[in-house]
Amino acid sequence: MILYEYPFNERIRTYLRLEQLFRRLAELVSRHHPLDHHFAIQTLFEIMDVGARSDLKSEILKDLDKLKQVYNGYRGNPAISEAALDQFIARIDACFNALHDDAGRVGHGLSENEWLMAIRSRISIPGGTCEFDLPAYHDWQHRPAELRQHELNNWVQELAALAQPIQLLMGLLRESGVPQKVTAIGGQYQQNLPQGRTFQLLRLWVDPALELVPEISGNRLLFSVRLMQRGPDGKLQIAADRNADLEVTLCA
Predict the structure, then answer these.
(1) What is the tally of structural domains in the chain?
(2) Residue 104 predicted with pLDDT over 90
(3) Tell me, what's the pLDDT at 76?
(4) Of 48, 51, 80, 222, which residue is 20 to 30 A from 17 by alpha carbon distance?
(5) Which of 150, 171, 192 lies at the terminal end of a domain, its last residue?
(6) Pair (160, 191) in one structural domain
(7) Is residue 1 included in any domain, yes or no?
(8) Do 16 and 132 fall within a single domain?
(9) DSSP secondary structure of the chain
(10) 75: Cβ–Cβ under 8 A, 6 or more apart, which residues?
């Protein structure tokens, strides 16, 4: 099954983007080819760009604080292990404190690295990191993979205070939903959302054997899915003559 996720607000949209970038970064750093490490550095810069929003840090801290209040409310519940609860709240506190104590914007330590910033100034230019532009970078790419990985992991640690709470918040958000089977009739499906509950994320699974691409739109009142298929010219068009079974999860 192919999973598609659709955020219902800008905050979750930003979290999803960061989560995808951190996943890509981890995959690229684990490889050994210089080209993989080039794109790992480029991903570092993308995370810094997304994390440059002035209100991002305060939003994450607010979400962590709300989360802690929710779980503190479970204290005294005989169905819940106090030891497990303490351990989880300690994890929330660790994420909160690390981000709170990280002065300045995301990746500010990387911004002080002149060598990295020289690459950043050239990497958005097509072919801007050739050896005649950045000979020191060209030399770095020819160093042993283990040395490059060591330096990359040090730079990744500069972003750990952001990566860990994003992973925690998105993991818990996804666990809040219950999957349901639905059927799109004539290539379309629409569902009203119950009032009094604010959903933040839609998760949609599509069987790849159907060869359909979902176009999702939504707001706090409803969401809709249009299933598209490739025509003879390669362009997407609505699969108006087809019904399809889907799996949907709404996360609040």
Answers:
(1) 2
(2) no
(3) 85
(4) 222
(5) 171
(6) no
(7) no
(8) yes
(9) -EEEEEESSHHHHHHHHHHHHHHHHHHHHHS--HHHHHHHHHHHHHHHHHTT-TTHHHHHHHHHHHHHHHHHTTTT-TTS-HHHHHHHHHHHHHHHHHHHHS-SSTTHHHHT-HHHHHHHHHHTSTTTT-TTT-HHHHHHHTS-HHHHHHHHHHHHHTTHHHHHHHHHHHHHHHHT---EEEEEBTTEEEEEPPTT----EEEEEE-GGG--EEEEEE-SSEEEEEEEEE-TTS-EEE-TT--EEEEEEEE-
(10) 82, 85
Of the residues 171, 196, 229, the one at which a domain ends: 171
Gap between the Cα atoms of 208 and 244, Å rounded? 11
What is the CATH classification number for the domain harbouring 150?
1.10.3900.10
Contact assessment for residue 92 and residue 71, using Cβ atoms and an 8 Å cutoff: yes
For 106, counting Cβ atoms within 10 Å of its Cβ (0-12 exposed, 13-18 middle, 19+ buried), the class is: buried
- Are 92 and 167 in contact, with CB atoms under 8 Å apart? no
The tens digit of pLDDT for each residue in 157-205 reads 999 999 999 999 999 999 999 999 999 999 999 999 988 889 999 999 9
φ, ψ (nearest 5 deg) of residue 136: -65, -35
Q: Hey, what are 132's tokens?
A: 């005649």
